[in-house]
Write a structure and sequence with these properties.
CATH class of the largest domain: Alpha Beta
Number of strands: 18
Helix content: 25-40%
Structural class: alpha/beta
Radius of gyration: 20 Å
CATH topology of the largest domain: Rossmann fold
Distance between the termini: 58 Å
Order of helices and strands: EHEEHEHEEEHEHEEHEEEHEEHEEHHHE
Largest sheet: 7 strands, parallel
CATH superfamily of the largest domain: NAD(P)-binding Rossmann-like Domain
Strand order of the largest sheet: 3-2-1-4-5-9-14
Shape: globular
Length: 373
């Protein structure tokens, strides 16, 4: 097939491109090369010559219109991510950009799209799913600021019956994004699904859980926990853990995310549906920091200041039943993935601690709050 990948120069998008080319597809890339992910807006050396590259904004009709020529499948991976103070940017780049892309599809004569695959995110869920011993399954609201300020990290039953236990979050869980990024990802997902129904173009939405692996930008201090921790450790600095470090996430290797995309390309069983892309395995942030330190061979205790980020969830692990029913199974464990990631990081030469340069900015802007005084 002829496939267009927006954001195809990013670490997830480029890995998708590699796998599509290996399967014999013809691939075109549109990427803005946004900083700080791409320092200086430079084309990354890992982009394959076999893929046609167009530099530009996927929401620009002058760019995306010609890029759609002859395309049968659109994989829309382009997005601005992370915890930053630039609230409007998420909506401008992700929400409005996707709307302009879809408008351009309608306005481009001869478009013959057979499918749109849109990259969504766990951020659309908010806190996800929990169980209360007294009240059963609950999808709670975000923890209130006064609770976090007191260092009470675990979610409490809204009916006053103690702490909640996290459950795997399935696609039927109520979406309740609590960050500007999460809101914009939900916008992207819903815009594409509704557009597909209205215009008879099959759409598949993939909700990526926390993706890690080679090519994850070591220069972006706002997103990519593995890269942030690794560059801190390589510069003799401790990883900074928010809350108590016991919050948990579902970490999935980038090649497995790319495999999920390949699985749904041209697959009628995926049309009009939403799928979690994760492993079903929960890992605490503290355990992740220790595993990265072990893989690097660096001994450095993490730094815990009792700080927290508003909008951050406590626990989130994927229920992957629906994607498994299509035949998907992750192939790379966290341990193997970290070893492969660390080998790639060491091959990049001297890396700066990008997080340290913006740490005070994150506090001044109110993204990071609390802490011991």
């Amino acid at each position: 097939m002829r496939i267009l990948v927006t954001g195809g120069a990013g670490f997830i998008g480029s890995t998708i491109v590699d796998q599509l080319l290996a399967e014999g597809h013809r691939v075109r890339i549109v990427d803005y090369l946004e900083e700080p992910t791409h320092p200086g807006g430079r084309v990354p050396a890992y982009l394959p010559a076999a893929a046609e590259f167009i530099r530009g904004d996927a929401g620009d009709p002058q760019i995306i219109g010609p890029a759609l020529d002859g395309i049968e499948v659109l994989i829309h991976d382009a997005a601005t991510g992370g915890f930053t103070p630039h609230l409007a940017r998420y909506l401008e780049r992700n929400s409005a950009g996707t709307a302009r892309l879809l408008e351009t599809i309608l306005q481009t004569p001869g478009t013959r799209l057979r499918q749109i695959i849109v990259a969504s995110s766990i951020a659309v869920y908010g806190e996800g799913k929990y169980r209360c011993a007294a009240h059963g399954t609950i999808t709670p609201a975000l923890r209130p600021p006064d609770q976090l300020a007191r260092g009470l990290w675990e979610l409490q039953c809204p009916h006053g019956d103690g702490a909640l236990a996290p459950l795997p979050t399935d696609e039927g869980t109520r979406a309740c994004p609590e960050t500007p990024y999460g809101i914009s990802k939900y916008d992207q997902e819903r815009l594409c699904l509704v557009f597909g129904r209205h215009h008879d173009i099959p759409v598949t939405a993939l909700r990526y859980f926390v993706t890690f692996g080679p090519r994850q930008s070591p220069t972006n201090p706002y997103t990519g926990v593995c890269s942030i921790f690794a560059t801190r450790l390589l510069n003799g600095q401790p990883p900074v853990l928010y809350e108590d470090g016991q919050q948990s996430r579902d970490f999935i290797f980038v090649e497995d995310v790319a495999r999920a995309n390949r699985l749904v390309v041209g697959n009628p069983k995926s049309y009009g549906r939403i799928f979690n892309v994760g492993t079903g395995r929960a890992t605490t942030i503290r355990a992740l920091a220790a595993a990265i330190a072990d893989a690097l061979g660096v001994r450095r205790e993490p730094q815990l200041n009792g700080e927290f980020r508003m909008g951050e969830v406590r626990h989130m692990v994927a229920d992957v039943t629906q994607l498994a029913q299509l035949g998907f199974a992750p192939q790379v464990s966290l341990e193997e993935g970290l070893q492969r990631y660390v080998r790639w990081v060491r091959a990049q030469g001297r890396l700066q601690d990008a997080f340290g340069a913006v740490e005070q900015q994150l506090k001044a802007s109110g993204i990071v709050q609390g802490g011991r005084r």
